[in-house]
Amino acid sequence: MPGLAGTLGFIVLYFLLQFVAGFVAGLAVAVAIVIKIVFRHGVTGMAGMGHQIQTALIQPDMQAWLTIITLIASAVTMLWQARKRWPQMWSKAQPPGFGFVMPTVPAFFAVAIALGIAVPVLGGLLTQLLAGHRPLQQDIQQLGVHSQLASRIALALVIVTLGPLVEELLFRGMLLSALMRRLRVGWAVLISSLVFVLIHLPGLQLQWYALPDLLLLALAVSWIRLRSGSIWPAVLTHGINNALAVLFWFVAFKPPG
Fold it and tell me: Model pTM?
């Protein structure tokens, strides 16, 4: 089992991989644009190439697909590495295991669904109370709102499925387990939840009033992960929470154009 330092390093590596994967994907797009320009117009077409590359990369749909590629690449890499490095922990139900087993009682899936619906509703009300009239801005939301339908659907699928899976592995599988080896359960749950909240703060553009909503989600998925003896109900709750968030991309905003 990785120690606390190794676990935190693994989490940092996940976000570093997102940066690297995003850079590589963007570079690949830029190279493709250069090849296309040279093929069509020859060397003379390279005069305004920098502007054309920048214009292409800032398009909402391009940003959405680069984000999709980035999230898939980093998430799959981390899941594969965790499965490869700690196979004995993968299917161990309770911490220090990662909990990739069926829950002790199947009814926990129903509880997970109820939590997935209740948490964003309560968290949303709490956010509105704290924010007042200030709008809540989120980087991923801006991509979803301004991209075309196909890009919007693809991005939503990744956020609802793969995103919760890898984040539950990192925070409720690995970090919670590492903390429980040193601390009481309550402190381990609280600290792992706070780390989860703070890591998401940059994506929320440092809007502090959105943090209680994330903390409520983190505490809920920690509780159901420990009570059920499985990571899957936590993944389900997390996924439903994300699904309700991205639902506004489709019903609360007009499509671009």
Answer: 0.89
Structure tokens at 12: 């940092």
With a CB cutoff of 8 Å and minimum separation 6, the contacts of 227 are 108
Chain centroid to Cα 177, Å, comes to 20
Location of structure tokens 């990369």: 57
Amino acid at 4: L
Give first-to-last CA distance, the chain, whole Å: 51
pLDDT digits (tens, 9 = 90+) for 156-185: 899 999 999 999 999 999 999 999 999 999
* Residues 157-162: contacts with CB under 8 Å, at least 24 apart: 158/68, 158/71, 158/72, 159/71, 159/242, 159/246, 160/239, 160/242, 160/243, 160/246, 161/239, 162/71, 162/72, 162/75, 162/76
Distances (CA, A) of 40 to 26, 32, 53, 249: 21, 12, 15, 37
